[in-house]
Specification:
globular, 9 helices, mainly alpha, CysZ/EI24
Length: 251
């Protein structure tokens, strides 16, 4: 398929994920991630959400006089980046805490739609520990690439017109990151190594980018973000199964 077709297919998996959340056999695996989401949203909004406008104004008031002409552009860039940062921090923290439960949810989805549960070769305790360790390794991987993108963003910041690319670059990076975050669940359930996961992720990069893009946008919607995490786990599992040779999805 061409990149545009692949990209447009990606978001459909999150919508399918929302639809499957109503399945009775999945409910007990969905409740805990939703409760974690509620607790984190309350904590993060209490921490800095209500003060966002004040922080942006305070930061921009410190600009030197020769940069005042950039104030409006920088305000919007800062607002977009702050919103994206909230989405990513919320998602990464939620997944770090819920990673053991998300792995169980992904396995149950696979059993539901194929009739066969995945086999990682590890015990239940080993799978849960691997989920947390895998999450920490991904955070380190994200951090290194976010640092490089941050350096590039600083270089673009003071270049007229080029600085408009900062927010889209961070959005694309975040969409890829969130795609990896959720696709890791079905891949980890099969015991794939970190490098094998990266190879698999890049093999369908446009479809995965489309999926991650809608996840990013949905995470920014109040109330909807409460169920984005379990819906994304379900959707990512369906996406993985649809692109896995030899797997027959019954529904």
């Amino acid at each position: 398929m061409n990149p545009i077709t692949e990209f447009t297919l990606g978001p459909t998996y999150l919508l399918r994920g929302f639809g499957l959340l109503r399945e009775r056999s999945l409910r007990r695996y969905v409740i805990i991630p939703i409760l974690i989401n509620i607790a984190l949203i309350v904590a993060l909004v209490s921490l800095f959400g209500w003060q966002l406008d004040n922080w942006l104004d305070a930061w921009l008031s410190g600009l030197p006089d020769w940069l005042h002409w950039l104030e409006t552009v920088l305000w919007w860039i800062a607002l977009l980046l702050s919103t994206l940062a909230f989405c990513y921090v919320f998602t990464l923290l939620a997944n770090l805490i819920a990673s053991p439960f998300n792995g169980l949810l992904s396995a149950q989805v696979e059993k539901l739609v194929t009739g066969t549960a995945p086999e990682s070769g590890m015990s239940l305790a080993g799978e849960m520990a691997d989920g947390v360790l895998g999450e920490l390794r991904r955070l380190r991987w994200y951090g290194g690439r976010a640092l490089l993108l941050g350096i590039l963003s600083l270089a673009l910041l003071f270049i007229p017109l080029a600085n408009l690319a900062i927010a889209p670059l961070w959005f694309i990076f975040g969409a890829f990151m969130l795609s990896f975050e959720y696709l890791d669940q079905p891949m980890a359930n099969r015991g794939l190594t970190f490098q094998a996961k990266l190879v698999r992720l890049r093999s369908r990069r446009w479809r995965h980018l489309g999926f991650g893009s809608l996840v990013t946008l949905a995470t920014a919607i109040p109330l909807a973000n409460l169920v984005v995490m379990p819906a994304a786990v379900v959707g990512a599992t369906l996406l993985y199964l649809d692109t896995e040779p030899g797997v027959i999805v019954r529904r």
